[in-house]
Write a structure and sequence with these properties.
By secondary structure, the chain is of the alpha/beta class. The chain has 5 helices and 5 strands, in the order E-E-E-H-E-H-H-E-H-H. It has a single domain, classed as Ribonuclease H-like superfamily/Ribonuclease H (Nucleotidyltransferase, domain 5, 2-Layer Sandwich), CATH 3.30.420.10.
Length: about 170
């Protein structure tokens, strides 16, 4: 592939808090080639932004482009990566070095700051990751409520059999 455009975003709900990344890879015509939307655990928004860029480098490398342009709506990330200024935070310095190391695998690359209105795909993917997580949590809570209501009507011996069965299931899944 000659040229690849990569849109990245990372967000933490709470700072730090549950964090997610969104990555959209497109060709020069704007056709989506690949998308990433996932939770990354607990982080700050800054760390999530760098993690998004690092993961984007890995996904872009799969397509073996000769030129890659990364777009972020975080000016600090663009400035750190492009060496406009340096972070004083050791953990951010480490993330910058990791990202630059991955970026240097491409023959030509650059990281551009863009207005948040120009980077719409990646933030949508971040929100999708959060939304999907909420859907999974709601489904699990529903199942737990059903289990509790069914267990409430059992006799003591029935409840003991349910506990024994649950322990066997846990052993099988381990």
């Amino acid at each position: 592939m000659e040229k690849l455009f990569v849109y990245v975003d990372g967000v933490a709900k709470g700072n730090p808090g549950e964090a997610a990344i969104g990555i959209a890879l497109t060709d020069p015509d704007g056709n989506v080639i690949d998308e990433v939307s996932r939770l990354i655990g607990r982080a700050t928004t800054d760390v999530a932004e760098y993690q998004a860029l690092i993961e984007a480098c890995k996904f872009a490398a799969i397509h073996n482009p000769r030129s890659v342009i990364f777009f972020t709506d975080n000016q600090k990330v663009a400035n750190h990566i492009n060496r406009v200024f340096e972070s004083r935070a050791p953990h951010i310095k480490h993330l910058v070095e990791m990202a630059v190391g991955l970026l240097n695998q491409f023959p030509r690359w650059r990281v551009n700051y863009v207005d948040p209105y120009a980077n719409v795909r990646a933030p949508r993917l971040v929100e999708r990751a959060f939304h999907q997580n909420v859907k999974v949590q709601v489904a699990r809570e529903r199942l737990e409520l059903i289990l509790r209501s069914r267990a409430a009507g059992l006799s003591d011996s029935g409840l003991q059999r349910l506990i024994d069965f649950a322990e066997r299931l846990q052993d099988e899944e381990a």
